[in-house]
């Protein structure tokens, strides 16, 4: 959480340079709109420990100095990309014209601000009658039953303990829905980069055996999950949503599992596979012309967004 909020005003009162004391901060005379905001923030500060005091920034009228770079497509775009790669002054002009260097222009206004290195702000205990989390929980309990249900990790764990269902049965029910290697592909396979059936069933069988023996590893044992195609996982390629293969090469018998995969497996979770993502994770749309773009399952006219598009779908 930032230590201060800079309030930039452009009303007539803010056009006059404010008086400063020797320290340059103490005697700024803020306009009325800033005073109103200050009163509101003081009410907020009463609810938190260590809440920072907001300071009004210098009154700088807004001025849009950014230019508009021309839209390019086709061969013109190819030539422009080549020129930017080899002619540094074109690259510098495009960068500057788009306003990427704008922050440098306000350096003199912020370089003397005292940075806050520990943004820890703790809320005071809230009266339970006013706590939104409690109110939401109570309203959820009173809500009408829905025709469908999303199963939580706690739901799976409870059903496994009771014997109502097993991790192996859950894995077998989900796999046909997410596999790309079947004809036709699974109904929800667009969200999945790859699934190794043998690995999944082996993990599910081991989890089922632990529950039968009364020795589950914990609340995540047997819970189905997945990882983004950005993390290394034994038996899977790592492509970052691209055509390239970035899988780490190791000696036979060595593991390439990333830390998060190791922790999931040590908890007994059943990793169903790898999820789709925006190519190289370089945008927020989730669009991927190589492996397909996951759509919103409830409205196919929209993407799930990205770069974790498969995770948003799953």
How do you describe this structure in short?
With 314 residues, the protein is mainly alpha-helical.
Descriptive terms for the model:
single chain, 314 residues, mainly alpha, Amidase signature (AS) enzymes, three-stranded mixed β-sheet, two-stranded antiparallel sheet, 7 strands, 34% helix, disordered N terminus, AS_sf, Amidase, Amidase_dom, Amidase domain-containing protein, catalytic activity
What does this structure look like?
The chain has 314 residues and is mainly alpha-helical. It has a domain at 153-313: Amidase signature (AS) domain (Amidase signature (AS) enzymes). The protein is 34% helix and 8% strand. The protein has a three-stranded mixed beta sheet, with helices on both faces. The chain has a two-stranded antiparallel ribbon with strand order 1-2. Helix 2 packs across helix 3 and helix 8 packs antiparallel against helix 9 (197-212). The model is unreliable at 1-30 (pLDDT under 50).
Strand content: 5-15%
Helix content: 25-40%
- The CATH architecture classification of the domain at 153-313 is Alpha-Beta Complex
User: Whole-number average pLDDT?
Assistant: 82
Query: Strand sequence of the main sheet, in spatial order?
Result: 3-5-4
- In N-to-C order, the SSE pattern is HEHHHHEHHHEHEHEEEH
Named CATH topology of the domain at 153-313: Amidase signature (AS) enzymes
The geometry reads as extended
